[in-house]
Fold this sequence. Notes:
The protein is mainly α. The chain folds into two domains: about 5-420, no CATH class; about 430-505, no CATH class. The protein has 20 helices and two strands. The chain has helices at about 5-35, 40-45, 65-85, 90-120, 125-135, 160-180, 195-210, 215-240, 245-255, 260-275, 280-285, 290-300, 305-325, 330-360, 365-370, 370-395, 405-420, 430-450, 475-485, 500-505, and strands at about 455-460, 495-500. Strands 1-2 form a two-stranded parallel sheet. It is globular, with a radius of gyration of 25 Å.
Amino acid sequence: MRSISREEKSRNYLLIAFFLVTGLSLYVFYTVVHPMYIFDLDDWFYISYGRHAFPTTSLWNPSKVMPETLLPLVSYIGAYFVYPLTGDYIQSLCCVHALTTILFIMTYLLYAGKVLAKRFSLDKASLTVFLAAFLLAHFTPFLVKDFGCYHLLNSMNVNCFFNYTIPALWNYTMCYYFMCTTPNDKKWYEKGDGRKKSFLVLGVYLAINSNLWTSQILMIYFGVQLLISFIQRAGAEKRRGKRWFTVPFIVSYVVDCFPKFFAIGCWLISMLFEIHSRRGGGFVNNSFKFWESFYALLSAIGSMNRVFLWLVVAINALALFTALVRRRKTHAWDMKFIFWQLEMAACMMLCMVYQVLMGAVLKDGAGYVVRNDTLMTWMLWLLMMTVTSAAYLYRCQPRLQWLAPLLVFVLLIEVVVSYPTYVGNYASSETPSQVKAIDDDIISQIVLADKAGKNTVEVHIPVSISTGWPLDIKNTPPKVGWTLFCHGITERPLTVTFLPDMEKDAQFHLD
């Protein structure tokens, strides 16, 4: 057995320390700085939502299996395991929602690190530096103002975190997993590794049945892999002087790559479920608004931080230029880098095209195209391309390691100190303390009525939040009453009605 040197152990500890510090920092970010408090109608509805774990057209969102099962599952854990320990229902839910989000972020970082380590043989210390820069880069694209900046790990409310951010992170995690493994679909037909394959099937299933705006990430990656495999096979046949466009060739190709074809087929079926659902019929445009969607995407790109854009272009261009110059001396490795970049660039461009087409087809689709939690579906490819280019330059010029910690420090200060405030995790303008106080007040009124043995309760809420969003006085009350019953906060499902009250506005200091 190979003994591990003291220096190697210290580098392992450094990487472990990075993940611990990152996890703790993100926990503080999502529970203290910008807490993930439930607040609006969708939050109250979906934290106790019940659905099947398979797509069905009878539901409002037929194929959103991942978000609409994960959110209520972790919410039940918060209500029945954490709440008895804390005595604070809203804070307990905030903790489990934050921990779930952090778990997906950390898994995403872990597999991004595996890709970098495998492709560039990075030691643990170097990998730690690159992962730190990679994580911080998610906060940089929208640093354009002194207050309320968006970032790529943010969403409009808790429900949107589970509907957009987490599914996107999971799709990218699955892509990174397949990047780390040998791209040989024939292994699916071999015996052994049954447990590993079963979890892999579950992971792909959740990625497919996640969200119309995010599920394409893994499927586009599979599609690009299929195209690459086809070109490589055809080229090999041509070099042997054989005809490649024959029935046996096509059959062999389809059989060998069947798992990816099957996954894409399942995804297309899930898309049909969405189109023919009750929601799909009401959310499709009567006309194809391509240019409106396209210009929305351009405006989103144009609103990004100029320094970020120039750095991304410069790093990728410099790495590509270096690879083209060096490929005569070290052909194989430099050509591999060019291939990796072209592969990710193809995935990014196809994701952008998909987003534009979705924006053109759906009502208010242009509004979705510019959201940070949908922009991330293609922007994370851009960040991965950039960190890959940086790692390539680092391997070509080892002396760059002298500058790496300094650059990470500069990036850290820009993200944490120079732009100290980011947008909150809810679409309305209330502060976190106001959101928490309003939630607690609503719950206390319902709990008092439940303890008094009442079956109905009239809950007083601020007038300023009762005019449609976040607390629609018609649709929200039944969801609140049912959720509190499902989570064991009340002993019976009370019939709840909301009564707008100006005194509540004064109590919570709302304008």
